[in-house]
Amino acid sequence: MSAKRKQTLGVCYYPEHWPRERWETDARMMAEAGITHVRIGEFAWSRIEPEPGRYDWDWLDDAIEVLHGYGLGVVLGTPTATPPKWLVDSMPDMLAVGADGKVRGFGSRRHYCFSHEGYRRECARIVTELAKRYGRHPALAAWQTDNEYGCHDTVESYSKAALEGFRNWLAQKYQSPDALNRAWGNVFWSMEYRSFDEVELPNLTVTEPNPAHAMDFQRYSSDQVVAFNRIQTEIIRAHSPGVPIAHNFMGRFVAFDHFAVSRDLDIASWDSYPIGFLDRDTDDEENKLRYLGVGDPDNQALHHDLYRSCGQVRNGEIEGRWWVMEQQPGPVNWAPWNPAPFPGAVRLWAWEAFAAGAEVVSYFRWRQPPFAQEQMHEALLLPNAEPNEAYEACRQISAELARIGAVAAPERSDVALVFDYESAWAWNIQPQGRDFVYFDLVLRFYRALRQWGISIDVVPPEADAVSGRRLVIVPGLFSGTNMLVEALATGEAIVLLGPRTGSKTKDFQISEELPPGPFGRLIDLNIRRVESLPPFADVKLKDGGRFDGWREFLVPGTGTTVHRASIDGHEAHVSQGRVHYLGGRPDEETAKAIIGELLRESGITPLDLHRDIRVRDNGSLRFVFNYGPETVDVSAIANGAEVLFGEALLGPREVLALRR
Amino acid sequence: MSAKRKQTLGVCYYPEHWPRERWETDARMMAEAGITHVRIGEFAWSRIEPEPGRYDWDWLDDAIEVLHGYGLGVVLGTPTATPPKWLVDSMPDMLAVGADGKVRGFGSRRHYCFSHEGYRRECARIVTELAKRYGRHPALAAWQTDNEYGCHDTVESYSKAALEGFRNWLAQKYQSPDALNRAWGNVFWSMEYRSFDEVELPNLTVTEPNPAHAMDFQRYSSDQVVAFNRIQTEIIRAHSPGVPIAHNFMGRFVAFDHFAVSRDLDIASWDSYPIGFLDRDTDDEENKLRYLGVGDPDNQALHHDLYRSCGQVRNGEIEGRWWVMEQQPGPVNWAPWNPAPFPGAVRLWAWEAFAAGAEVVSYFRWRQPPFAQEQMHEALLLPNAEPNEAYEACRQISAELARIGAVAAPERSDVALVFDYESAWAWNIQPQGRDFVYFDLVLRFYRALRQWGISIDVVPPEADAVSGRRLVIVPGLFSGTNMLVEALATGEAIVLLGPRTGSKTKDFQISEELPPGPFGRLIDLNIRRVESLPPFADVKLKDGGRFDGWREFLVPGTGTTVHRASIDGHEAHVSQGRVHYLGGRPDEETAKAIIGELLRESGITPLDLHRDIRVRDNGSLRFVFNYGPETVDVSAIANGAEVLFGEALLGPREVLALRR
Amino acid sequence: MSAKRKQTLGVCYYPEHWPRERWETDARMMAEAGITHVRIGEFAWSRIEPEPGRYDWDWLDDAIEVLHGYGLGVVLGTPTATPPKWLVDSMPDMLAVGADGKVRGFGSRRHYCFSHEGYRRECARIVTELAKRYGRHPALAAWQTDNEYGCHDTVESYSKAALEGFRNWLAQKYQSPDALNRAWGNVFWSMEYRSFDEVELPNLTVTEPNPAHAMDFQRYSSDQVVAFNRIQTEIIRAHSPGVPIAHNFMGRFVAFDHFAVSRDLDIASWDSYPIGFLDRDTDDEENKLRYLGVGDPDNQALHHDLYRSCGQVRNGEIEGRWWVMEQQPGPVNWAPWNPAPFPGAVRLWAWEAFAAGAEVVSYFRWRQPPFAQEQMHEALLLPNAEPNEAYEACRQISAELARIGAVAAPERSDVALVFDYESAWAWNIQPQGRDFVYFDLVLRFYRALRQWGISIDVVPPEADAVSGRRLVIVPGLFSGTNMLVEALATGEAIVLLGPRTGSKTKDFQISEELPPGPFGRLIDLNIRRVESLPPFADVKLKDGGRFDGWREFLVPGTGTTVHRASIDGHEAHVSQGRVHYLGGRPDEETAKAIIGELLRESGITPLDLHRDIRVRDNGSLRFVFNYGPETVDVSAIANGAEVLFGEALLGPREVLALRR
Ligand SMILES: [Zn+2]
Ligand SMILES: [Zn+2]
Ligand SMILES: [Zn+2]
After folding, report:
1. Where is the active site (chains A, B, C) (predicted)?
2. Which of A131, A471, B408, C27 has its CA 20 to 30 A from that of A155?
3. ∠ CA(C260), CA(C262), CA(C265), 5° rounding?
């Protein structure tokens, strides 16, 4: 169930980059293409407040009026990602410091330290001014706080402000240095502290710092993002009642806890650049080449599901909202290489998002700027203001949205895949094998589910989130709460745990009962040894498939069943009742096989899909996507359903919409 | 036409490294090998001025006398690349600062910041002393200022002196902060400045700085090299009338504008290390292996042509002079690996330079030092003073020079290839695809021309330089002046533009008319999209060949002709009248095919050469070079001409000299 | 001959990590497994002295008593590798500074600068307290100074203390700046100093520093390790008469002169992690895969032989002692990937060490800690105190030791392989080809000897060490003393020199007589040219085999014999009388062939071994090891000998013990 909001298009717009005379035309063209939402303002501090305390509202008043005149809803960004030079010069210690000890200077963006009290006060001031002036404006559709928290590795700062903040945070958490010493195990290597003021930041140590130290610093840093954001949301709610607040998260970014920030957001949104992300998603060149101009078939989808989940944190499943705040319209400027989208890809991306329940898909950006850092980033319009390809795609998409009366109607999935930010930090701090990456591990299971045609919920490791499911996948969960274990124990879902799940306490210690720690309640098993393996080695399984890079040596109890074993004679996949444990990182073949078995065990019927085909349900609608280079016959999927648009002989990067 | 100076050999000599008693023998052996020019002094500051203000001229007086006694001409270097420790200690802020913010200390060479006024004053002092003492000495053949400006990445310094200098430079260029803000597009990301004193250097920013900011800093830095050099040349001209001034440029080095520095030079020279450079020229291991001991067949040649052009900046085509100031005689010490030259390679290199019109080919260095950083760098003599291989090569080459009465007589070529330092900076700042390197792009076209047997002029993007040609190639030219466009429009040359040519204004903004900007006057075309592609992808062309890494989407006007298209259906090579545009980075096959067509269109007859063979004309002489491992029959080229030396069955790394 | 001490097992134990109640059980279990030696204390400073000047001995008294109660000998570590935070805060400049100029902070271990006088005083104080309290305790079996000097690249520090120390050291060595200038060749690039106070540390120079400068700094840094260690050994000897002193060296670590430190040690020991080291030993993936869970078959063995040699420096061959202080028991945490040992590997490692004459093989560590940096490092016990695999291996090994009455009885080998720390520094400073690594060069010859079944002595470049041998191998020896040359000249051994042997003077200058410098007395030869080659090139030899990466151009005298030549026509391997010179870096095939010839020439009968088989003699015992994955029939080796344990059909990672 959901509130079933209408699905629509948006765009990011920078009126301050263009002559006043042009705005009218821009607004008209937006409306003509079916765009309804326009994000503005998020980098405009130097135009809003050109000198300390002198505000210039005229241009922004005008811009909002012009947009309003064409019925466009305004998404107003707070400009705190780009403090002007005069502000930085007034308190230079607001700049963040990198892990290398260097001040990160002015000259681009995000040049601030989240811990700096002075900068927080300045942000509160400018947000208050903005919220007072526009908080009740009829054009206002939503707020966006700041922009892409953490972009360019800016969550962690190793500044004096951060050091002081961290010491206070530790004092509050542990109350006594002895408690901290015990929790971290500081007796090891004589790292014991006599006072919180002796604690340093975990950078520039001779060799790696204590992982518990690094973990607490990551938690502290994440908490500063939450606090920084909350200052803004509290001010906005006070001055702009009823207007939803969003932030635009990023792809493959885990340096702060997005669920925690989402507690203060009405709308979770993210910035989706499928081609730009492709370079990071895989090092498989055959796949990269196949999907060069369309992106990994599962990466965007995973983020959609994750951020839909974030959007439900504050207001629940029914009122929860999620958007794509920035959608790639053409080649970007920031990846190592920047290919053009394949024909059809721009439209496919929009429908993949709508199929996942997105309310708004908003393009970045309206018109390609001729100047500055992003001049090579394409937009809906060319630098000379002529429509570019994606502008035409907008026309088509908005017509289709209207034709099918599209609404955001995501339903709770039978399948939940647990995603946990602390786990991402933990395995980043302690990979134990160079290529062990938490996000990649989750993606392997997500991909397998998608390959079987499943619509998935990606959820936090919480009791509510997993209860009432038929299948719950919990890969690599650093630590587990008793409540989560209890929920899994009392539910009826088939559960897949591991690898590494439950292997640590919250204090980053190995569980006293040995891994899987508290999950040992669900399955009689312990893990006495793990090994990581270089890419040229692997663990072959008896019935085909393999683990790559990671393998655990399971000691299962007598009540367990062995489903898979390695050819060197070790248990690889065991179960007891509804609960399975997987002792390694599965390759694509193995992941797909296991997930297929578990789906059937859960009573869910998987679809047998072509490698390039993906399927997604939104309410009563089913969408079929072809990410590949060839036409694929998907009539078996379409079977019996009403075709809303598209064809069962589904062309490359084409979409088929069905009513189930 | 040229002044037809005699061609001859030189050597770099460090009398201060050897006992006084040895100098006489050295001079005699130089003369015996046919060497006529000896460069000395350029690292000897600590011997010339062992303590502040106390000069020791005796040894240098003697050294010059000894050389003079054997009829050797002296090339006297100013010692400003190696300020002594006492000078650095007297003003430590003269040290440059790296982009990482670290001071670049004493202990090797080039430890100074070009912007530092105090160091400039010290240089003026020592150069004045030198020029006064030796400026009219009869042995003096030429001066060399400093040594290898910019070696070890020393053009850019991020020091306090540079910051102050940069702010003044910007103030002079833009006159008002608003003008700077508009030119750079600082409204983007609130980077606007209220005063020039707010501008910082473009290093240590959170993410990339504004490309316009980076570009102006590169221009500023280049200007400091020009100014630094001019201080010396003005002093020298005052005290040493009529003696030509040289500087020794480097290979594949573009961090300052060599044409601009050359305005103050009578002789452009460069330091040619064919084997050392091979590691950077290509990552094609088959080619690297084939040319391991001889170097890339086209890289040295391109530099010869470029620096010949530099040598003509101040005094024109007739009086212009160029030398190889340092020529590799054996293995060097500084490349990742340092192979020995193949038999014949040392002689081939000399003749390749002479064929390109070099007046002097000077070896680095006379005798291999047993000590310090370059002890593994071979020389004409072994450390124990016995002749090494290259000494014997000198004997042979000087005999051949005498036999054929060689003079420097380069003629203006029908073919001009435009080379532009600002373009190298621009695409370094904004490659848009990781492997887009301007120098490499130029080399692709240069190589194709050489493969067709053409002698080429490599010229600056100026009207004079392109006029009167039959074929002009303009690859990747960042920006274009109206005068250049006018010259191309009114000339009769076939012109090849692109890729990326004319895509930016001088302010590093996308041209208002879209690329190719002002070159759109020559051909009815605009470029609405570009894409960069990783090495495992490419753009295949319909009739064979391909673009690698870079492709543009052309929108040609109705009056244009399409010569090539991609198999995915986009125009790749179009023309209108005499003017062609190429929309991608051509692989070797494609470059060769296109250049072949354009040569024929220009009425120039290409030669059909074996892959290892290169041909070069100097006045009435034609030289044929075999860079390969096998004997090649070149009698078709020799056909009818008088053989001066060499054979038509041309052995590996052998040279054939013909009179046309 | 040796003192024939009993061979036994040890373990590293951290009582401070576990509850007092557990210690008794631990001690009992140790004794039960046959462990006799327990190392404790080396990271416990914060527990011994929790606040400045307040000592807490109770726990350590107790721990020693408990161990003593079970008859266990205590190896007591000084805790100077982990100074507590309060000490660091009391003098922050005791922290080392990295080559990048950054202070290396508190938060892990080894956070100190060897040059810091204040820290040396603090170490003297804590060691005095420890030595006074426990120096005559009956349980005390040995001392260990500090822990793994130099781990995490901590030998070199670029601190103020180091700068001052270095200047003094230079003043003492050279007496006058002129002498230093001459020795370093500072006239090159005007690097001359007028006073020792002008000399800087060799980091952060614009380009590479003078190699002589770098070399002297490495010597200085090594000397500080020696001096730092000697402060401790002198105090210990004063307060703990008769108790031997050890230090635990590392694998593949050469940053200080271990022979020099060993002058103050009674026992040389090292920390052997065969799997962890595998990643660095080779980039041959086929080999890495074959030996993934057992380690390189020759790397540990080489270290055993090297440190056995170190152990004889102070007390001579008979009284010399060596241990493995830390032996890997399972996966570790610190390599890029951390595979588990193959079945049998743990036992094989122990026997390889005992076969090489180790007195104690001590496991690291007793019980896997659940906390801090090494929580993923396995131990004899699991974190939950259950025995892990290696505990069971200990039982078996100690039973076997008892059964055969094993004693350390290494005999002087007929074959000496010279190892020299200065050479490692020299070729690190001046590799001349990117992949030239001294350790790797030595390993190539060592491996060839092992492949022929030879037990080897790895010795310093000293006359005593090489005299009385039948075969002496001297690869890559930077410089040579007259005494060494004299010893080789007057002995009767077959000698193999080169490549690079004798190529420099101690001042890092090329020998006046050209390489091989003083070794030219032994063979009439000089080397006029060297070349380094990239991995895709090589030098093929006429009768098969090749040099990779390095080749010298030999000019042999008339009295020499040519044994090998390259297919491009250069001498590659020549000899005169007993002395051979090899002019390149041999590949495995070539090294094996040459060593085989030299063994026969020396009258030593090589064994023809399977690729995975190694043989080692200890006194009258012979051990045969199978490092490979298949069973190998070694009955030809066993022929006639009494089998102590194991079988002639030797299984994977199995050991066969024979009495000869
Ligand atoms: Zn971003
Ligand atoms: Zn240079
Ligand atoms: Zn260590």
Report:
1. 148 (proton donor), 326 (nucleophile)
2. A131
3. 145
DSSP conformation letters of B572-631: EEEEETTEEEE-EEE-HHHHHHHHHHHHHHTT-------TTEEEEEETTEEEEEE-SSS-
Contact criterion met (CB < 8 Å) for A210 and C372: yes
Burial letters A413-425, b for 16+ CB under 10 A, else e:
bbbbbbbbbbbbb
- What rounded mean pLDDT belongs to chain A? 97
Q: State percent of chain B over pLDDT 90.
A: 96
CB-based burial label for B181 (10 Å; 0-12, 13-18, 19+) = middle
Q: Which fold has domain B613-659?
A: Immunoglobulin-like (2.60.40)
The rounded Cα B468 to chain-centroid distance in angstroms is 24
A623 alpha carbon to ligand 1 midpoint, in Å? 29
User: How close, in Å, is residue B370 to chain C by CA atoms?
Assistant: 5
Domain C415-601, CATH number (from 3.30.230.10, 3.40.980.10, 3.40.50.880, 3.30.930.10): 3.40.50.880
Q: Give per-residue pLDDT as tens, C519-568.
A: 999 999 999 999 999 999 999 999 899 999 999 999 999 999 999 999 99
To the query of whether residue C552 is one of the catalytic residues in this protein, the response is no
- The pLDDT of residue C277 is 87
Q: Judge whether B109 is annotated as a binding position.
A: yes
Give CA–CA dist A429/A216, Å, rounded: 11
- The contacts of residue B521 (CB under 8 Å, 6+ apart) are B485, B489
C169 Cβ partners below 8 Å, 6+ apart?
Answer: C216, C220, C223
By three-state DSSP, how is residue C23 classified? helix
Of C43, C45, C331, the CB nearest to A531: C331
Q: What is this model's ipTM?
A: 0.96
Residue C1 pLDDT > 60: no
| CB-based contact B374 C206, cutoff 8 Å | no
**A113 annotated ligand binder:** yes
Per the CB < 8 Å rule, is A205 touching C17?
Answer: no
Catalytic residue among B42, B49, B122, B148: B148
Closest listed ligand to the CA of C149: 3
The contacts of residue B407 (CB under 8 Å, 6+ apart) are B4, B5, B6, B7, B619
The one catalytic residue in C122, C148, C359, C571 is C148
> How close B38 gets to chain C, by Cα (Å)?
18
Q: A269 and A249 in contact (C-beta within 8 Å)?
A: yes
Q: Is B113 annotated as contributing to ligand binding?
A: yes
Nearest-angstrom CA–CA distance, A434 and A420: 20
Rounded distance from Cα B101 to ligand 1 centre (Å): 25
* Chain A CB contacts of C370 below 8 Å: 185, 509-512
| CATH value of C41-248 in 3.40.50.2300, 3.40.50.720, 3.60.15.10, 3.20.20.80 | 3.20.20.80
Q: What are phi and psi of C635, to 5 degrees?
A: -65, -25
Are B533 and A292 an interchain contact pair (Cβ–Cβ within 8 Å)?
yes
Written as one string, the DSSP assignment of A339-367 is PPPPTTHHHHHHHHHHHTT-SEEEES-SB
User: What mean pLDDT do residues C211-218 have?
Assistant: 98
Distance of CA A360 to the CA centre of its chain: 16
* β-bridge partners, C321: C267
Q: Give residue B260 CA to ligand 2 midpoint distance, Å.
A: 20
* C166–chain B nearest CA distance, Å: 15
Each residue's pLDDT tens digit, C233-270: 999 999 999 999 999 999 999 999 999 999 999 999 99
State the ligand closest to the CA atom of C377.
3
Does residue A585 sit in helix, strand or coil? strand
Fold classified for A8-161+210-404: TIM Barrel (3.20.20)
* Domain ranges for chain B: 8-161+210-404, 415-601, 613-659
Longest Cα–Cα distance in chain C: 78
